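Table S2 (continued). Query chain:
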Amino acid sequence: MSWTTLSLFIPTFFFVSITPGMCMTLALTMGMSIGYRRTLWMMIGELVGVAVVALAAILGVAAVMLKYPDIFIVFKTVGASYLFYLGVQMWRSKGKLAISTDTDNAIRHNDWDLVVQGFITAIANPKGWAFMISLLPPFIDQSKPMASQVSIMLVIILLSEFICMTIYATGGKGLKRSLGQSKNVKTLNRLAGTLMCAVGIWLFVG
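Corresponding output:
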């Protein structure tokens, strides 16, 4: 991956990760109820799940592109268009991602249960699959070795997810109160939406 591509991929995926969603909500509520150290078990499962989803998205699409090179243009166009669409939707959001306060039914206390819960949450998240399938393929450079690109992407994705879950898990009541306000969620969505639209345009014309 070139430095130009990395300079766009890193902040783009960070904003995707930091936006409140299923995994981040789980990290926040567990961090408040059972502490950061115990929440790490859930985070391990979530990271494994994210890695599976990311690899499935990259390798599945890459296999198709290697067999049918012309499809790369289609994937690139569709991915760029979808990112732009997501950016617009984030701008139009009215704070619907506000964190729920009902956590009594979501948390288990056995370490293995926490790992499984994190893994299932990542695997069963439809938005996660949508982001991976649309976001990752356009960043693939067909002129460079696939293995190194996949490795770099995976490291960036997992590091970004871990940092964001740590922020949520250690944020406590202050972060929950802040994200419970529609205007704050709306601001976060608009920042992420702006970057999504910009990256979508760059991928489309690049």
